[in-house]
Each structure stands twice: as C-alpha cells, then as structure tokens.
Design brief:
The complex is a heterodimer of chains A (311) and B (404). Helix content of chain A is 68%, strand content 3%. With 311 residues, chain A is mainly α. Chain A has one domain: ABC transporter involved in vitamin B12 uptake, BtuC (Orthogonal Bundle). Chain B has 404 residues and is α/β, with parallel strands linked by helices. Helices cover 43% and strands 19% of the residues of chain B. Chain B has 13 helices and 15 strands. In chain B, α3 crosses α12, α6 packs across α7 and α12 packs across α13. The longest helix of chain B is centred in the C-terminal third of the chain and has 23 residues. The chains are: A mainly alpha (311), B alpha/beta (404).
Chain lengths: 311, 404
C-alpha cells in the first residue's frame, strides 16, 4: 500500500509540473489556435533565471563566465522573479515570431516554424551566454527544512516534491479564479471564443494575446525553476523533454481546455509513475502509448469539444 | 486551404544543361575533400584533430578533455621538430555530432584523430575513420569492443572490464557485511550497458545478491520511481553505471530518499564536474580510476604542477590526464616517425598509415604511468586506483581521495 501511495505522490508531483507547463501551451492555443514551440525554451530560461536570482555563478564556458548578480534573493522571490523574466522573454517571442505573421494573416503552419526558430535561438543564446555545462541549485536552498518528509510507515516525500505540488496547485487555482472571475480573464476567454466578435465588443484582442503569452511564459518560467530545484539544470536543452510531455498533455486534455491541461498533466505524471520497474527506462514510451490509446477512443481529448462540421 | 501544387516538369533545354551542372558539382566536391595522395599539409604543423563533447549532456567530460589537450599543446610544442597542429571540433553528445566532426576533420586532411568523448559516439564515428585509414586514439572510450572496431582504432582509456571490478573488491574490503546490491544503468548508452555487465559479473563473482536492476535513460532527470522500486529491495550497496549529469542527479535523489549505504559508481562519473550536481550528497561515493594525481612519477608530477598553476590549485581529473596522454602519444609518435621517415612531401594516406603503426609500437611515459599498446590497440597500463569522493561541509568543493 505504501508503495502505491509513494508512486502516486511521485506521479502527482511531477504531473503538477506537466500541468503547469501545458497550461502555457493551452493559453496560447486558445487565443491563437497555434502551438508555441518556443515554450520549452522559455521553460529553460525560467530554470536559468532561478539559478541566477539565487546568486548562482555562471560557469567557465559561456560569455558571462564567472559573473553573478550582486544580490541574492530568497527562493520564493527568485522563483517569482524568474517567472516574470520568463514572461518578458515570452512577450519578446510574441513580438518577434507571432505578431508580424498575425498582422499579415499568415497560415497557422508558419507560426509553428517561427516559434520553433525562436526556441532554437533562445536555447543557443543560453548556451552562448551560460555555457553548455550543468547547473545545480544549492542543495541547502530549503534552509532548515529536511530534504525528505517521512509520513506514516515507509511513505517518503521529498520536500521539493511537496513544494512542486503546492506551488503548482496554488498557481493553477489562482489562474482558474482569474480566468472565471476577473474582467480581464473573461476578456481573454472572449478573445479565445471569437477574436472578431471580441474586438467588436471593444476588447483589445492584441493586448489580450500578449497577456496570454505573458501568463503562459510566467507559468513556463515558474515550472522551469521548480523543476531545476528538483533535478538540477542538465544544460540548455533541458526543456526539450518537458516540451514534448507538455504537448502530450495539451492533446490529452483537449486543445485549449484549462481543466483538460490540469487533469492531463496529472494523468501523464501518474501513468509514468506506475510504469513497472522493469520498463522504467521506457516510461516516456509507455506514457505516450497510453496517450495514443486515449486519443483513439476520444480524439478531441478528455475535455475537448468534437469539431462541429458545417453542412 | 492551400492548393496542392504539383512539381513543374522542366523543359528539354534544362536537361541539356545537366552535364555542365554535374561537372561543376563534381569539381566543387573534389575541392571540398582532401586528396589522399596529396602530400600532408605541414604549414602549421602536423594536422591532428580532436572531437570532444563540448555541448550536450556529456559536455562536462569534453571540458575536462579540452583542458588536457591545451596543457599538452603547451607542453609538447616548444622546440619540437614536428609540432602538432591541433584542431578541436565539438562532437556534441550524440552519434550524429561525432560523425559530422569526424568527417569534417578527415576531409580537412587530419593525420590522426583524438576522440570522440563517448563510447556510444565511437561505435558510430570510429568506423568512418577506419574506412578512411585515419588513426583514432580514444582518450575516454571504455566500453568493450572499441579497439576491435578496426586496426586504426586504439585507446589510452583502460576498458571497464579492467577497472570496474576493482571498486567492488574495495567496497567489500571496507564493508564485508554487504550482501544485497541494487544496480542502475542507462540502457540507451553503450558505455553504461557495457560497464554494468562487467559490474554485475563482479558482483556475482563476489557472491553478492543483485536484488534489483533499474534501467534509466541518458536524458532522464527524475529517478524517483526507479529509486522507490530499488529501495523496496533493501540494498546495502548501490552500483551505478551512468554519466555525470544523470548519475549526479540520481545520487542526490537516492540520498534524499534516505539511502545510507555505500555507493559505487563507474567511469562515467569520474570527473570533478559531478560536485556541483550532487553537491554534499556526492560525499562517500567510491570509484575506480585509471589515473591518480598522487602517482609519483616525473611526468605526472610535472603535469599536476602545471595543472595546479593554471587551475587555481585544483588537481587534474582523470579525463584531463587521459586527453593529455592521447596528445602526448601522438606527438611522440610523430617525432619518431619524422626522424626516421621525414613527413615532408609524404602522401597523406601513407602518413596516416605509418603514424598509426608508430603509435601502436611505442612505449610512453605519461601522467598515467608507463603505457604501451597491444597489437589491436588496447592500452596496456600498470596501475589502477580506487578513490572516495570527499566533499567539504558546504558541499561546494570536493576531491577524489585515494584509498590505499
């Protein structure tokens, strides 16, 4: 029983990160109808920003070798700052890779290419500035808190896991409240529903799209920082596997569905956790095979609406 | 929805011009590759290439190796009658990167290659050098079967089957009560799969019980599920065949989840670059090594002194010493060859062939100790060591302390 609980906790904590990550994809998809392939790179930026804001020194192989900020921030502030800085990067991506195409009414496929290009440039820029080496956040970052919390008989939760779960959960809750209760949240939903009608109603759709990018990138930056806290930063390409997983979650939950992204992330995380030990090296393949099966049964995803065909 | 646009069929005139274009392309292609019968280009020294993992997951090894090559360049260039002209190329951390870098350097007319960093890359890239008749001296490939790729492939890195069992013997000396062993390895990496086989044989030979074998992948970052499963089997000892980044991460998570027993790691984690990854959790891990900074030979002491002077007092890593040794072997072989048969005007193909023979026939006094090669290119080395990682209390600085 403890083992099952342990696996469930492992799955939920990593699933919360997938959800947070996929929410970023979802927000952009809901307003533009395209997938932002630079999202993984923004996630990576978030991890690096967290490292820098925590007072980390740049390694010896980048242009910024041995540089560090003159101030060191506490973890909570560093994570929030990393989220905001990632949001700035996201806005830059929107301005450079999306806005010009949107103005010209370009094909959706072109957005994929420009966002992919923006992602590759960001990753290479990270490599140029920070070097390709791995970075680790200080292991004593949680201060006097124990590294592991023992609950009951045999159930152990890494404090970092718990933090992932709490921050992920709270952020998703805030996002949901904002989307449903605030005026700007409703305006964003209106733009997602129909941009033209929203514009006729006086909503500045351009600003709403930028807001969607900023929030999506904030979430990516925050999840990047949280993951870095848990598993270190393996190098500039560290966001790629999370990017793929986030795409899987987006599709599983249903394109553009916020609850879908939340639940989809948890399902993928838990599925991975319950992959038998002998197949653990293939957990990605098992998770995607499960996704494949679900989509065969329900092509629109868990919360997606089936496309309405005009006749 | 865009219209489907079929390929327009070119006019007959366009086909008439085809032979001219083909001729031009042929000429361009012949310009881009070096003619094997042309003399070796000795303008800036004997061209030698190095393919290192400077980016990607294995970049931590590549950085160590680049330092070794730079130190060797400084040590062997002055006063040499045949200095080496070294070109370092980034081979990334995958097979495609290594293949591209090998092709590039071979086409530029290199007479010998040092690298690639990973065994996984060597199995893909070294056969290309073998087919083109270019000697390859691997500084860090430890998987079984590397020299067997062909007559032009040799290595200065002792293979896992020689080194790995030493650390199992040592850990049993330190704690004879060990009975149950958990094994982890990356099943998508040639080095890891090769080394774990050797570790598992050594574990069995010692009469220990392998209670679980957990498989990971090179790019994995979260190992909680594998660790949960392994800890259920209550191991006394954990043996890892992983690379530095994934291995460092796994150790951190393993210790955080409460594993208190001994940890033995393989050659992939034989680099000080693991310190920032597992930090204070690196403390106490055991590793067998093919190099010790404490070896009291003239060559090693000089090497350590230079390294310390340049690196703020840090002692060299094994990979740095092995890369230095690879350069030294080629530099000394080139000197001897040039003395006997001047390389000036010698066709590239012949220079590569003779240099390979010279490399394999020599004996070298290196920082690794005295080394030579077997006929098939396997290094013959006299001394191996077991070290324990000792971290400072803040977990920032560590060292490989030699276990007597």
């Amino acid at each position: 029983m403890e083992v099952w609980l342990q696996l469930l906790v492992n799955g939920i904590s990593i699933g919360a990160v997938y959800s947070l990550f996929a929410l970023g994809y979802t927000l952009v998809f809901s307003v533009l109808g395209v997938i932002n392939f630079a999202h993984g790179a923004v996630f990576t930026c978030g991890a690096y920003f967290t490292y820098i804001f925590l007072g980390g020194v740049v390694g010896s192989n980048g242009l910024l070798a041995t540089q560090k900020l003159p101030v060191t921030f506490p973890l909570a502030i560093a994570l929030v700052l990393a989220g905001f800085t990632a949001a700035m990067v996201g806005l830059l991506v929107e301005t450079v890779a999306f806005k010009p195409l949107r103005r010209r009414g370009a094909e959706p496929l072109l957005y994929l290419i420009t966002s992919l290009g923006a992602g590759v440039i960001i990753v290479n820029l990270i490599q140029l500035l920070m070097g390709a080496e791995a970075y680790a956040l200080p292991s004593n970052i949680l201060g006097s808190m124990p590294a592991v919390l023992a609950i009951g008989h045999g159930l152990q939760i890494r404090t970092v896991q718990l933090l992932l779960l709490i921050v992920g959960g709270v952020t998703m809750l805030i996002l949901n409240i904002w989307l449903n209760q605030s005026l700007s949240g409703k305006a964003l939903q209106a733009v997602a529903e129909d941009t033209t009608t929203a514009r006729l109603l006086g909503i500045n759709s351009g600003a709403m799209i930028q807001l969607a990018f900023a929030i999506a990138s904030f979430l990516a930056g925050l999840s990047g920082g949280l993951v870095a806290l848990s598993v270190n930063i393996g190098g500039p390409y560290f966001g790629i596997s999370y990017g793929l997983k986030g795409l899987g979650v987006l599709v599983l939950g249903g394109l553009g569905s916020v609850p879908g992204a939340m639940l989809g992330g948890l399902i993928i995380g838990i599925t991975e956790a319950f992959v038998p030990a002998k197949l653990s090296a293939y957990k990605d393949a098992v998770a995607f095979a499960f996704l494949f099966l679900v989509l065969i049964i329900r092509p629109q995803g868990l919360f997606g609406k089936p496309p309405i065909e005009k006749v | 929805m865009p219209l489907l646009m079929p390929l327009a069929i070119p006019s007959v005139k366009a086909f008439q011009a085809l032979p001219k274009w083909l001729l031009l392309l042929g000429l361009l292609a012949s310009c881009s590759t070096t003619n094997n019968n042309a003399p070796v280009n000795l303008k800036a020294g004997l061209p030698v290439g190095a393919v290192l993992s400077l980016t990607g997951n294995a970049n931590v090894y590549g950085q160590d190796q680049r330092l070794g090559l730079e130190l060797a360049q400084a040590a062997f260039k002055p006063g040499s009658s045949m200095p080496l002209n070294l070109s370092i190329e980034d081979g990334g951390s995958d097979e495609a990167g290594a293949i591209n870098a090998f092709n590039l350097l071979i086409n530029q007319g290199t007479t010998a290659l040092i690298g690639p960093t990973l065994s996984q890359q060597a199995f893909a890239a070294s056969p290309i050098a073998q087919r083109r008749g270019v000697p390859v001296l691997a500084p860090s490939n430890t998987a079984t079967g590397i020299p067997e790729i062909g007559s032009f492939i040799s290595r200065v890195s002792a293979q896992s089957s020689v080194i790995a069992p030493i650390s199992i013997n040592k850990v049993m000396q330190l704690d004879p009560s060990i009975k149950r062993v958990a094994v982890f390895y990356a099943n998508d990496d040639a080095y890891s799969t090769s080394e774990t086989t050797i570790f598992q044989k050594a574990i069995k030979a010692k009469g220990l019980n392998t209670v679980t074998v957990q498989r990971t992948q090179l790019n994995d970052q979260d190992f909680l599920n594998q660790i949960t499963s392994a800890l259920r089997a209550k191991p006394d000892l954990v043996v890892l065949s992983l690379q530095a980044v994934d291995g460092g991460n796994l150790i951190r998570q393993l210790r955080e989840l409460g594993f208190k027993g001994k940890i033995v790691v393989g050659n992939g984690m034989n680099t000080p670059n693991i310190y920032p990854i597992c930090q204070r959790f690196c403390d106490g891990i055991l590793i067998a090594q093919a190099y010790s900074p404490e070896l009291k030979t003239k060559e090693n002491q000089a090497f350590v002194a230079t390294h310390k002077a340049q690196q703020g007092g840090r002692v060299p890593a094994q990979l740095t010493a092995q890369a230095y040794t690879a350069y030294q072997v080629i530099a000394e072989a080139a000197q001897r060859l040039n003395k006997r048969e001047p390389l000036k005007g010698m066709p590239l193909r012949q220079a590569r062939l003779l240099l390979n023979k010279e490399i394999l026939s020599g004996t070298y006094n290196t920082p690794l100790g005295k080394i030579s090669f077997s006929r098939d290119g396997e290094v013959k080395q006299e001394s191996f060591y077991v070290a324990e990682v000792q971290m400072d209390p803040d977990g920032k600085i560590g060292r490989f302390a030699l276990l007597k």
